[in-house]
């Protein structure tokens, strides 16, 4: 069956438009994650920092080997996601003294491999989408693998250098976050 030139041209134009959209080139985009592009109101800087910070205080009480190493700001966020629609509203990084120093000497002090990070989101759905995204990306790259524990709007990301039993303490701590 022959297609008309107009049909072929229109189909090609639609495919080109789809290929150039942000969801095709940016896996973090709202469309790629199946979300609306309507932005959510970001929390104030002081309020949003308290979310991840408060969660860390709960975690550090349950996991005394965890030590705060940094608070992520819009200026130092390596992922450029802080405060963006459907992304984390606050984030802190931490080290865990049980992580073997020899395995992580090449990493920056705030790298998840040194211990982990806590990301706070506006909604549980946003936290779940981030957890699924991180798991999908790291699944085929063992060097980037990590343990991820979501509780409500909080996502705790933990270094793969910890044993499963050691990392399980973070899951227990996540369940205590209110």
Question: Can you give a write-up of this model?
Answer:
It contains 6 helices and 5 strands. By secondary structure, it is α+β, with helices and mostly antiparallel strands. It folds into 2 domains: 1-38, no CATH class; 40-174, no CATH class. Strands 1-2-3-5-4 form a 5-stranded antiparallel beta sheet, sandwiched between helices. Strand 4 (146-151) and strand 5 form a beta hairpin. The chain starts with a helix and ends with a helix. Residues 34-46 have a biased composition (Low complexity). This is Lipoprotein. Residues 24-46 are annotated as: Disordered. Keywords: Signal.
Record the SSE blueprint.
Layout: H1 5-20, H2 22-25, H3 45-62, E1 66-71, E2 90-96, H4 101-104, E3 115-120, H5 124-138, E4 146-151, E5 154-159, H6 164-174
Antiparallel strand pairs: 1-2, 2-3, 3-5, 4-5
Helix pairs in contact: 3-6
Please outline what is shown here:
The chain has 178 residues and is an alpha+beta fold.
